[in-house]
Amino acid sequence: MPEFRRDPVIGRWVIIDSDRRFNKSDPSETESYPKDHSACPFCPGNEYMTRPEILAYSKISGRMPNSKGWTLRVIPNNQPVLAIEGNLKRRGEGMYDKMEGIGAHEIIIETPEHDIKQDRITPQYYETIYEAAIARIKDLRNDLRLEYILVFKNYGILANAVFEHPHSQLIAMPIVPKRVREEINGAKEYFSYKERCVFCDMISQELSSEIRIVDENEFFTAFCPYAARYPFETWILPKNHASDFDTISAAEISSCARITKSVFSKISKVLDDSAFSALIHMGPLKEKNMPHYHWHIEIIPKLIKTAGFEWGTGLYVNPVSPEDAAKYLRESE
Amino acid sequence: MPEFRRDPVIGRWVIIDSDRRFNKSDPSETESYPKDHSACPFCPGNEYMTRPEILAYSKISGRMPNSKGWTLRVIPNNQPVLAIEGNLKRRGEGMYDKMEGIGAHEIIIETPEHDIKQDRITPQYYETIYEAAIARIKDLRNDLRLEYILVFKNYGILANAVFEHPHSQLIAMPIVPKRVREEINGAKEYFSYKERCVFCDMISQELSSEIRIVDENEFFTAFCPYAARYPFETWILPKNHASDFDTISAAEISSCARITKSVFSKISKVLDDSAFSALIHMGPLKEKNMPHYHWHIEIIPKLIKTAGFEWGTGLYVNPVSPEDAAKYLRESE
Description:
The structure is a homodimer.
Chain A: E1 3-6, E2 13-16, E3 55-58, E4 70-76, E5 91-93, E6 96-100, E7 104-109, H1 123-140, E8 148-155, E9 167-173, H2 178-194, H3 198-209, E10 213-216, E11 220-223, E12 234-238, H4 250-270, E13 276-281, E14 296-301, H5 308-313, E15 316-318, H6 322-331
Antiparallel strand pairs in A: 1-2, 1-6, 3-4, 4-7, 5-6, 7-9, 8-9, 8-13, 10-11, 11-12, 12-14, 13-14
Helix pairs in contact in A: 1-4
């Protein structure tokens, strides 16, 4: 059973999971996905290889659960980081703190097509993923043990995507993770000084200066952030202030899907189908409608390695200025 | 010229350095060091390939600077992350903050031997490195633009070590990095509640429970931390409370060198010469003798990849419990 443990100095929770498969990376071995994907558990016909589905979309009326015919499918992860059953049992261990690794870890299988190409992916493709994620968040809000939900996507082996079949992930957890708490605290400080949302201010400065803008539509803007940690790091922000992702309107979902398609296409084109991670940062489940926090999507192409200096300091060295990165992305296509 | 930029939400500084060489990682290419190291700039005879040395130890009296005959050599990095000349010019850019990338980036060439084997490295080897690092810190303290010095070592390609020749690094910077500030703030909170140093408390709990202890000697203890982020993460802490690394006694330096040799040998043996990063966390240059902060060494073997989930949350999943890791390390040799 995984366990949460809290670092007594900086208060960071980690998950210790000794039952988890531990593969030491082998630098002499170039990893790649198996060429033959008849054994892919996410492919249609292999539904029996996964745990029973939680949600599925289908164009076939009367489709039996866990059978073919779906267009999108949500399943529990076979190797979950956190388990849904049990009590948190928050307790001490001498001076230390721990609790059980309770939570949910779900996989959103985005499409039945294992090999779908970027140029065949439509805005509708992302719209369906966002709708499924929102449905899952609304459902998981009923579990009062949970404090936070992270929706994310790892693409490519370098970004640690275990499966090649297109998928996103959702992890619901009983804590608000450190990075999100830092953003909220920072945004709260800004708000108490300026009485404005720091993200709203960033959007208006970026739209007026234009130099870091990647794309824009009715409800969303995409730009490379001023203090980007990684080359070609790109954020997508809703123009309308909101701290919760799962309360946006149908028109906003559609607009978000269109800009997602555009940004992913640009990144894929400019960076030659590079590995990346993308994630949604939204407010904690129990802190709704925050005036100072603004949900957003962060996209981080996996282009450089980080090591001692970055780990030891939290200070990143980025060899590509966000102005250059935005220019390349903006001008592609 | 590199530039510091501050994230307006969480206050994290990043270094944007567009002049830096940017190599996109290529997953299809297994990287390795060149077999022929006649062109290694750190090897004796190649002193002309580096910038002029800042410090050198030698057994030859009257050795000319930047010639052979040294046993350890400190040089400015040819591709420094930060530059020593100039003014900080801290200023705004709309709502954002930036300043010039002022600081020092030095390489400690640990030995003339390019291929020295772990079993031929003595405690004396590390003692000399620590003495050189301390000499450099004492000197850099005179530069009042500087706020922090990080001494660290990346070993192996997976840990981003650009050169194979054994070396450590030192980066002096005009800010206190985020990770260190977090440790200090957390330790200060603990101190204000308990009137004790959280690190001193950890040492006494670890020494009494013994389950996470890797090694111990007169002045130092090494253990796998309770909330370890990474498999086999190991910390070395001085038993005597001190926040500054460069004020420890000769006996402590010697004791620290002995435990460093022991821990590095164990890690190399158990993890089959794995890549790792090691770094010294000490107090900020302008906050001396802090009762609540405790300098220490963190060693992080590079065994697993991190991606979207870890980046998005700051929450790490560690598949090896620190108790198991400590047992393996303790029982080796």
